[in-house]
Amino acid sequence: MILTLLSFLGTTLLQLVLLNRYFFALLGSSQQSRQRIIVHYLLSGTTIYLSSVSFFPVLITGLLSISSAFIISWCYSSRIESKAIFSVLYVILGFIAETLSYGFITQVHLTPSDIDLGSKQTRLLILLFSSLIFFLFIMLIKLFKRQRDYKLNKWYYLVLGLINIVSLLILNTLFFHTQENNMYIFSAFGILLINITIIYLFDQLIESFQMKDELQQLHKQTDYQNASYQKISNSFQMTKRIIHDTNKHFVYIRACIQTGEQEKALEHISKTLQVMGNSYLSIATGNLVIDALLNNAINISKEKNIQIKYQVSIDNLDMIDSYDLCIVIGNILDNAIEAAQLLLTPEERFISIRIFTHNHMLTIHIVNSYAHQNKKKLKENSEFHGVGLLNVRQITEKYGGHITTTAGETFETIVVLPICKQVTLA
């Protein structure tokens, strides 16, 4: 009795190892603290052990298996929809593995021909063989899964969830008719193929949405840069006209002074200086991405009566890809402008921008006015903002940096990117 319980403890540990390898194959490394990971594995292990040693109805056993997988999934950075889909899929693959192991045991006569599924020894043998089969499933998943997650439309998750539920119902029906027809093994392989294909299509769907969003970001970057080029061109043309008319201005100013009309001379000088000032870009750091995005943000802020302050002091940023820099700064500025413009009075609207380099680090510090009562309006585009923030986080992780956001009376975003560190390719 004690030996059997210890054997179930061993299979529980094996199931935890399977869960670890399964979610690693799907979602990559865990981002949680060691203490939190230990708590999650203890809770999941307890659930698995109770499910193994007890003989609950099939429905309860299935729910316990889904719960154990779902608990482990919280150790990984992923959307809750993906965690739920992958947790149910884990149970489906486990069910298929058990079905195949049952068929293997009956075919090679590892137990008496009249198999008693209520026997703990039989149950233990099935668990061991199914674990080995599940390892093969994980190796198959790793061949094509790229360990990424992305926000999809809720209808995609609903369809995937329905396919998972139907797969479980079919498997449940097949398992209780195994002794009547040995062809159930081929049906189990068919369902395995369907669900592996679902993982592949899910990964391709994520890639498609990512590429679509990246294309939108590229279009946005191109628009910003075209606007910057146009402003630079206009600036040169206006400066050229001013230089061309310099003699005329001096002649008029001299005439005003000679006739004692100093006020007209001062007024004309002020107007000329204003025109010259307007002919230059507000920000000209030499970095096209920063110049284009910040000048565009300044122009939009002026149109929307948002007070904007900026301080930019940067060195060479060649180590940071211009596309990545555009995603980070562009998304943060877009969110800041949208949040600030929702305040009722122009006096309340402001954005403060500080971008500087220090000790081989690029720091982007943006503070904007923010009102809690406007959260509902912001949520109208929550999918877009969620994708934007996810993209920013992915870029910061790619460069080994970090992002911090703080919401209170104001909304503060700080992004720090190393500019001399080797980039980890995705």
Q: Strands, helices and their partners?
A:
Layout: H1 2-27, H2 34-53, H3 58-73, H4 80-108, H5 120-142, H6 154-175, H7 184-244, H8 246-258, H9 262-278, H10 288-303, E1 307-313, H11 322-341, E2 350-358, E3 361-369, H12 375-379, H13 382-398, E4 402-407, E5 410-418
Parallel strand pairs: 1-2
Antiparallel strand pairs: 2-3, 3-5, 4-5
Q: Assess the beta-strand content as a share of residues.
A: 5-15%
Give average pLDDT, whole number. 77
Distance between the termini: 50 Å
Helices and strands: which structural class?
alpha+beta
Strand order of the main beta sheet, please? 1-2-3-5-4
Order of helices and strands, N to C? HHHHHHHHHHEHEEHHEE
Low-confidence stretches: 378-386, 422-426
The beta-strand count equals 5
Largest sheet: 5 strands, mixed
Helix content: 55-70%
Shape: elongated
As a whole number of angstroms, the C-alpha radius of gyration is 32 Å
Protein name: Sensor histidine kinase
Enzyme class: transferase
EC number: 2.7.13.3
Keywords: Kinase, Membrane, Transferase, Transmembrane, Transmembrane helix
How would you describe this protein?
- With 426 residues, this protein is α+β, with helices and mostly antiparallel strands.
- Strand 2 and strand 3 form a beta hairpin.
- Helix 1 crosses helix 2 and helix 11 packs antiparallel against helix 13.
- The radius of gyration is 32 Å and the shape is elongated.
- InterPro entries: HATPase_C_sf (IPR036890), NatK-like_C (IPR032834).
- Keywords: Kinase, Membrane, Transferase, Transmembrane, Transmembrane helix.
- GO terms for molecular function: protein histidine kinase activity.
- Its EC number is 2.7.13.3.
